Amino acid sequence: MTNLGIGLIGYAFMGAAHSQAWRSAPRFFDLPLDPAMNVLGGRNAEAVRAAAAKLGWKETETDWRKLIARDDVQLVDVCTPGDSHAEIAIAALEAGKHVLCEKPLANTVEEAEAMTAAAEAAKAKGIRSMVGFTYRRVPAIGLARQLVAEGKLGTIRHVRAQYLQDWIADPEAPLSWRLDKEKAGSGALGDIGAHIIDLTEFITGDTIGEVSARLETFVKERPVAAEHSGLAGTAGTERGPVTVDDAAVFLATFRSGALGVFEATRFATGRKNAIRIEINGSLGSLAFDFEDMNLLHFYDATEDPRTAGFRRILATEPAHPYVAAWWPPGHLLGYEHGFTHQVVDLVTAIAEGADPEPSFADGLRVQRVLAAVEASSASRQWQEIPE
Questions:
Q1: Rg of the chain over CA atoms, in angstroms?
Q2: Which residues are 311's β-sheet partners?
Q3: How far is residue 349's CA from residue 76's CA, in Å, rounded to a whole number?
């Protein structure tokens, strides 16, 4: 089997998740190319060597430009903060390397436009690119998309979406790059709101046309972190400003006319990673919560009203998306499996010469929604999103 040399840039939370996916995918799925975990990139030489040994990478680089230039790297996986996505991804595409880039695609619409233009130019040369909206790969979400596409919900009328976390609800939780607008682009809006924008458009097959929004920063100053581990950290003695939103709420009108209500917050005390989506149509409804990610609830309004009700579907059957490669029915999947499924879809598309989804153009569309939400909050007016 032909190797596909992988170079991963970034080794923290997302780097670890992607690393596990690159290890697991060829061991559970029959892939047309064999991903080779050749090189891990990071600025701190000692830390990146330790991460490579732990996560299973053969070699390391401290300069991402050298990583891209290596002959044993055919695909560059970008898991850095958003402020470097555009520079790294564009350089990789121009060097003839396939690219997987974490979400949100960029920190600004202008950067996302440049990345999309580079992706289109590279595609003409057979180079593929994809943005990592990983929750698309949850089997229950895939099933939800199938049900909508099959017309089981009829005409979509309402979309409700929440992404609720509480990891910075403590006002003394330390600063991280995710609370710095220059590095992250935005706060809860881009970090987690981007996911529910993408998920609702993915499930419905529709896109958002206009928004009316409000952003809020509840805690405007925090301790500077002395050290970090994943999303957590240890506070130091100095303090610094929070320059991103803590919470985002917005109304949306989809291009079909469906109405949407969205909420993204990192201050929902007690909610660790709740992605809640409910979609109501003329013929039925569906509901999903990532904190119970193997379940999809489906209501068929065409059934006898005497016995009609929400049906609890355990999405662990071989007929459900991705599940056949894993365990017997009822043996649950977890957070990490979405990343594995992402690798499967990307590697398969590269081997087949197909365009993987979500594309950079999809990421650009989400970026335009994020920008419109920010503009609406600042102006207190509805904002339209370009086609």
A1: 21
A2: 298
A3: 15
In single-letter form, the type of residue at position 330 comes to: G
How far is 288 from 181, CA to CA, in rounded Å?
31
* pTM given for the model: 0.96
∠ CA 193-198-203, nearest 5°, is 130
Reported confidence tier of residue 234, pLDDT bands at 50, 70, 90: confident
CA count, 13 A, side-chain hemisphere, 331? 8
Q: Can you tell me which residue has the tokens 């979309």?
A: 159
Residue type, 76: V
Residue 29: pLDDT above 90?
yes
CA 342 to chain centre: 10
What average pLDDT does this structure show over 74-85? 97
Residue spans of alpha helices (H) in the chain: 13-28, 45-55, 64-69, 85-94, 109-123, 139-149, 181-184, 188, 194-204, 335-352, 360-379
Structure token pair of residue 11? 């080794």
Res 160: pLDDT: 98
Would you say 69 and 94 are in contact if contact means Cβ atoms under 8 Å apart?
Answer: no
Q: Report d(CA 135, CA 198) in Å as an integer.
A: 9
Phi, psi torsion values for 244, nearest 5 degrees = -125, 170
Q: Summarize pLDDT for 133-158 with one digit per residue, the tens.
A: 999 999 999 999 999 999 999 999 99
Give the integer Cα–Cα distance in Å for 132 and 198.
11
- Predicted confidence (pLDDT) at residue 229 exceeds the cutoff of 80: no
- Does 211 score more than 90 pLDDT? yes
Beta carbons within 10 angstroms of residue 315's beta carbon: 24
What mean pLDDT, rounded, does the chain reach?
96
Lateral strand order in the sheet of 129-132? 59-61, 34-41, 3-9, 75-78, 98-102, 129-132
Tokens of 349: 């598309």
pLDDT digits (tens, 9 = 90+) for 150-192: 999 999 999 999 999 999 999 999 999 999 999 999 999 999 9
- Are 284 and 304 in contact by the 8 Å Cβ rule? The answer is no
**Alpha-carbon span 70 to 64, nearest angstrom:** 10
Cα dihedral 31/33/38/44 (nearest 10):
-60
Backbone angles phi, psi at 303, to 5 degrees: -75, 165
Decide if 265 contacts 273 (C-beta within 8 A).
Answer: no
